[in-house]
Each structure stands twice: as C-alpha cells, then as structure tokens.
Amino acid sequence: MTTDASSSPNELDATLRERMVAFLQSLNLDLGRDLYDETPLLGSGLLDSLRLVQLAAWIESEIGHPLDPERFDLFDEWQTLGKVLEFIRRYREV
Amino acid sequence: MAAEYDFVVYEPGLKSLVADLQVHLWSRRVATNLRYLDWKFEHNPYLDDPLLYLAIHEGRAVGMRGIFGALWEENGRRFQIPCASDLVVAPEHRDRGLHSRIMELAFQDLARRGFEYVFNLSAGHLTYLGSRAMGWRGIGSVAPAERESPDPSILRRIRRQTGPMLGRPFLLFDSRTPHQRKSPIRVSRYPDPPAMASLVTRLGSDGRIRHVRDETYFAWRYRNPLCRYRFLFWREADLEGYLVLSCRPRMKVVSIVDHEATDVEVFSALLQAAVSLGTFDRLHIWTRSLSPPELARLDALGFKPHEQPPGITHFRRTVLVRPVDLQNHGSEWTLAGRRLLEPASWDLRMIYADDY
C-alpha cells in the first residue's frame, strides 16, 4: 500500500475506495455493476469462506498491522462496502 | 440458486447421501462415514433426532452442516446446548453461498426446537471466518501448547526400525507399557466410564462452564470411530486420576484430550508417563483452563506455547458461540449469569471438541 503524504484525507478516502472496488471486482463477485457504500458484503451471501479470507487479508494489509478478530464484531462491521471502509479508516489510527 | 438446490432437514432416508458427501470431510470410506454418522448423531445421548441440515442438488447431498447434542453444566446446573460441526460442501458446489443458506435453515430449526445458544469447538480457519460473518463470536484462543520429541536422532533411529509404525504413534506406546508392579499407573485401550465419572463427581466443580462428564458421556464419547484413544489411570482404592490420549489414524500429532486428578502430583505423574512411554513426535494440549501448578508441570516437561502469529489471516483455535435467534437476542450472551465470551468462564477440555 502506498500513500502520498501530501494527499488530503478526502483524496486518501477516494483512493482507498477505488482500491476496494478494484479488489472486490477481482474476486468476481456478482455484486452488481455499480458498487455503493450500501452494497452488502457479508449480507450478500456471495462471500464464501475462501473469499472472506482474501477480504480479511486485504483489509489487514490496508490497515498495516495485524488484526485480532476477537476484538471486533466482524458480522456488524463488515456488512457493507461502506462499513468496511469506515473500519479500515478507524483501525489505521489504532 | 433457489431453483438449483433444496435445503432440507435430515431424515433417515437421506443417510446414504450424507455418508457419500462426507468422503470430502470424514473418511474416504463410505462405510466408516456411516459408522461415524451412527455414533455421533444416531447414538448421541443428548438428542433423539440427528440434526443435520443438507443442500440437495439433483438427488445428491452437496452441502451439509451437522449439529450434535451436548450437555453443559455451570455450577451444577445443566443446559442442553448443541454444537455445530461437520460442515462440508462438495468441491464443485463451493463459492455459491451454500454455507450461509444451510445455516439459515439450521438456525430456524434450532430456534423451533427451543435452543437458545449453539457452540462450535472444532472450527478450522475458513469455518471460523465464515461463522464470524454469520454472527458467531469467539472466546479467544484455547492456548494450545505442544511438546516435540526432544531427541530427533533417537526418533529417526526408531522410525528406521519400525517403518510400518509411521503415522501410528500408539504402536510404540503400546509396545512400551509393561505394567510395573509398584506403579499405580495402568494403561488401557478402553475407558472406565463408572470410575472416571465417579472421580469427576468426587472432585466437584468450581462452577465454570464445562461439559457434563458422567458415565453416559464417557461411554458414548470414546466410541468415536475416527479416533484412537489410550487411557492412563492412576488407581489406588479408588481412581485418583486419569489422562486420555487421542490421535487420528495416519496423523502424527497425539493430543491430551482429557484429564482429571485428585492433586497436581497425580496429574504430573500421568503426564510424565504419557511423555516417556509415547516418544510422540508431537504431543498437544489446550492450556486455557489449566491451573498455574499444572502449567508449571507442562513447562517442566518441555511443552511450549503453540500460538500462531497475530493477525486475522492466521488460524487460532477457539470456542465459537452464537445465540440461535441472533436478531432477537440481547447484547449480553450469558449462561446462568456467566458471560459466555469470557475465557475465564470456561473449564475447557479438548474432548469437548468433536474432532478428537
């Protein structure tokens, strides 16, 4: 993951969102043509266990440090694309 | 997808379909799978009906989740809380969301039967993450520890002499167990359910959550046809302690799946006997619920913590808990007032997990 130190928070968010959309598209999930913050991930039933591991690895790499899965409610916090983005932003600061 | 699959609760007429599907999980031999199915679900002492939830496609079972009966106790009060296990989807039907659809059916049926919670003590990494995505929560690591044989050169020599024993760790163990007249420790291939249950009753409980270990449990639990067991007993006038070893055929790891003792010296002697008689490549135990003196004895014998590195992509064995009706359940997950997600609430043994 690379970030530009001179980028504004909004620009960073936009880049993160683009990376996440690109990542989800690389999983070949049938999530629809356009992805929104409300696009369901866990609720979609499309993320099988293997893809969930891939998503977890991607989130962890974006955050930049190991995550302890017992310390957060994955069911709630990864429900939608927007919630995952919010999760990444929050845990980057931990 | 709805048109392709039927999601159904098991009935006896589907038995052979389940055994066929389980070649992907239990054994490549269908006959072995039928024996396992009989043992775990048909002869389960806590549930009359086998709770198996299936995805059927073109007359074949292509996905399944088993929920087996279990009886837990907290401070002497008993609770029927079944355990999820045996999740399998046929390879050509993976990536289609069958796991979540099967679990929807399972949770509906478990709610209808009046269960408040369901546990899972045997989830692997994929099942763990998939379950977390469905609202299960873990209690934290079971704190595995392992002892590797400290002298590989001796092991290598033994292996050369005993090639056929490879993958059969109890062969060496069995050949080395001539009973010493003065030792109170005896080794058996069979449990002693009355004596073991009597010891558990005599020792009592500190109130933490644990599986009921009575005569019925011991008589049923150690008939698992997929595992091999050896029992070390310390006998005087009564049984003063026991330690149970388990391994699966063709696996190198031997596990200490259950133990009880009237004091830590008896525990230590049983442990020492298991180590010295077995010369096992790897001897494994969960240490989450052990007392400091017990942990010290493990340390003295060379057991080391066997944790994976931190991170969500590294598997850590845990106990998974979920209210059956998650949406209508409160935020406090408790059993008789004891918090289920608190590791200190549990008195764990590996034998409570169905993969030993």
Shape of chain A: globular
What is the 3D shape of chain B?
globular
**How big a fraction of the residues of chain A is strand?**
under 5%
Oligomer: heterodimer
Order of secondary-structure elements of chain B: EHHEEEEEHEHEEHHEHEHEEEHEHEEEE
Mean pLDDT of chain A: 85
Radius of gyration based on Cα positions of chain A: 13 Å
Computed structural class of chain A: mainly alpha
Helicity of chain B, in percent? 25-40%
Largest interface: pair, residues per side: A-B, 23 and 28 residues
Low-confidence stretches of chain A: 1-5
C-alpha-based Rg of chain B, rounded: 21 Å
| Percentage of residues in DSSP E strands of chain B | 25-35%
Report on the architecture of this protein.
The complex is a heterodimer of chains A (94) and B (356). The model of chain A is unreliable at 1-5 (pLDDT under 50). The two termini of chain A are 17 Å apart. Chain A is built from 4 helices and no strands. The radius of gyration of chain A is 13 Å and the shape is globular. With 94 residues, chain A is mainly α. Chain B is of the alpha+beta class. Chain B has helices spanning 15-21, 30-42, 98-112, 125-132, 152-161, 169-175, 193-203, 215-221, 264-278, 292-300, and strands spanning 6-9, 51-57, 60-68, 71-74, 77-80, 83-89, 117-120, 137-141, 144-148, 185-188, 210-211, 228-235, 239-247, 253-261, 282-286, 304-305, 318-323, 334-335, 338-339. Chain B has a 7-stranded mixed sheet with strand order 10-12-13-14-15-9-16, sandwiched between helices. In chain B, strands 1-2-3-6 form a 4-stranded antiparallel sheet. A 3-stranded antiparallel sheet of chain B has the order 5-4-11, with no helix packed on it. The longest helix of chain B has 15 residues, at 98-112. Chain B is globular, with a radius of gyration of 21 Å. Chain B starts with 5 loop residues before the first strand and ends in a 17-residue tail after the last strand. Chain A binds chain B through residues 42, 45-53, 56-57, 59-60, 66-70, 73-75, 78, and chain B through 94-97, 99-101, 125-130, 132-140, 309-313, 318.
